[in-house]
Amino acid sequence: MKSILLIEDDVAFSNMLKRFLEKHNYKVSISYGFEDAKATILKDDFDLIFTDLRLPDGDGLTLLEIVKKNKEKTPVILMTGYAEVSTAVKAMKQGAIDYISKPFNQDEVLHVISNALNSSNQTAITTKKVEKKETKINSDFVTGISSTSKKLNEYIQLVGPTDMSVLITGESGTGKEVVAKFIHKLSLRKNKPFVAVDCGAIPNEIAASEFFGHKKGSFTGAINDKKGHFESANHGTLFLDEVGNLSYENQIQLLRALQERRIKPIGSSEEIEVDIRLITATNEDLLKAVEKGQFREDLYHRLNEFTIKIPNLNERKDDLIIFADYFLSKANETLNKNIIGFSDDVLKVFHNYSWPGNLREFGNVIKRATLLTSGDFIQKKVLPTELTQDSTVSDLPLQTKSFSTKDNEKDLIIRALEQANNNKTHAAKLLSVTRKTLYNKIKEYNISL
Ligand SMILES: Nc1ncnc2c1ncn2[C@@H]1O[C@H](COP(=O)(O)OP(=O)(O)OP(=O)(O)O)[C@@H](O)[C@H]1O
Ligand SMILES: [Mg+2]
User: Fold this and answer.
1) CA of 167 relative to ligand 2 center, distance in Å
2) Angle formed at CA 143 by CA 239 and CA 230, multiple of 5 degrees
3) Taking every pair of C-alpha atoms in the chain, what is the biggest distance, in angstroms?
4) Distance CA 68, CA 77 (A)
5) Which of 65, 120, 260, 433 has its CA 20 to 30 A from that of 144?
């Protein structure tokens, strides 16, 4: 399979093009900007580089220069706007193998690519190597491009390789477990076990035996020796999910084990030394629990050497397309489908919806839509009704706000009207007022529509 590096900052367009090319049996990697592309070109080998002329942090001509200098044999195709043909010609003089003007159609792009590949057979040798080398590690963790995601990723990259205890907070479905696993993968313990324990699912009475194990016969029901999670995770990472659910008694036992770095299975007389890194997650406010005396402060500090807060999906909307694309690839794979992308109005719905179930909900929606789609693109009609019916309503924090002061009242009305595309019935609904009230207010504030 021939590998293509696609360099294009328009996320929606590049993902669509990627999927289209993959459907035609190319292996496609994307860079969204100059710097990233440069690093990728220097690091990996590709059979073809397909780059936009204009990138937010550089241009295609300079990239062409870099390719010619470092990967001489790799053919480069430039994508240009209509008005840039003269630049494209210049590019060809400098060694680009071809150019294509946007917008282009599907046949055109396939034609240009296969031509370019055929005229540079020498590069074929490098292909096999690339396919093998492609790192799998990142494939289960999507980084995102929103500023919130960049910050998140920075923290993860920083704390990952250390041995610090990390407390991950975030609402349901935001990706706490995924982040925990990724942190483990970044650490020196990556080849040792990652053991995830859902503290919310363990009854208090058996928590100690779950954590520390027990000897056969040590209590009724202990019919065999059992290894505890601490021992199973030895030299690796122990991930305690919903740690706020541990009883006070269990918190004490946990703290003791962490401080002493040794545990004693129930009914055993021997202590076992354990070396584990601890990552915990919670979707409740642990500090509040500390204040209320429900969670031990000393344990809280022991768990919280570093905190990572994962944002809600609606705080990282710039990532929507990247996640949509990722979930679609996954769904295509599991359902044995070959869907290329999303129609524009589907992307709009994704954008307007509030995603209370965060990434988990997003993944489920896309999987279901993939199953229901028979054409090349996912259309609005296969989305669940809660997304399409009141996508705008649920997105609006407006609803919860009341008309408290005159100042914000006008503001709220204007925002609601914008959100509803000036549809007054819809705007009134968003504001939880009658249409008549809305009309009166529009008049009162002299709002022009
Ligand atoms: N960074 C990411 N990259 C790829 N997929 C992700 C990412 N974050 C979350 N997901 C997806 O979202 C789903 C939910 O993630 P996860 O189970 O980690 O959430 P959670 O915060 O632990 O949720 P809960 O609080 O309900 O347990 C995962 O199955 C995965 O598909
Ligand atoms: Mg979880």
Assistant:
1) 13
2) 10
3) 84
4) 12
5) 65
Domain ranges of the chain: 2-134, 147-309, 314-393, 396-444
Q: Is the peptide bond before 384 cis (omega within 30 degrees of 0)?
A: no
Ligand nearest to C-alpha 179: 1
List the structure tokens of 350. 């994704």
CA of 330 to the centre of ligand 1 (A): 14
**pLDDT by residue (tens digit) across 341-387?**
898 889 999 999 999 999 999 999 999 999 999 988 999 999 999 89
Ligand 1 within 6 A of 170 CB?
yes
Pocket flag, ligand 1, residue 222 (CB < 6 Å): no
CATH domain 147-309 topology: Rossmann fold (3.40.50)
How much is the pTM?
A: 0.65
Q: Which residue, 212, 172, 185, 140, is CA-closest to 277?
A: 185
Contact at 8 Å (CB) between 392 and 426? Answer: yes
Atom in ligand 1 nearest the alpha carbon of residue 170: 21
Going from the Cα of 141 to the center of ligand 1, the distance in angstroms, rounded, reads 9
Q: What fold, for 314-393? A: Helicase, Ruva Protein; domain 3 (1.10.8)
Choose which residue among 355, 360, 362, 370 to substitute to test ligand 1 binding: the one with the highest number of ligand atoms within 8 A of its C-beta. 360
Tell me the pLDDT tens digit for each residue of 379-425: 999 999 989 875 444 444 444 333 444 556 788 888 888 888 788 87
Just give the CATH number of 2-134.
3.40.50.2300
Q: Is the CB of 196 inside a 6 Å radius of any atom of ligand 1?
A: no
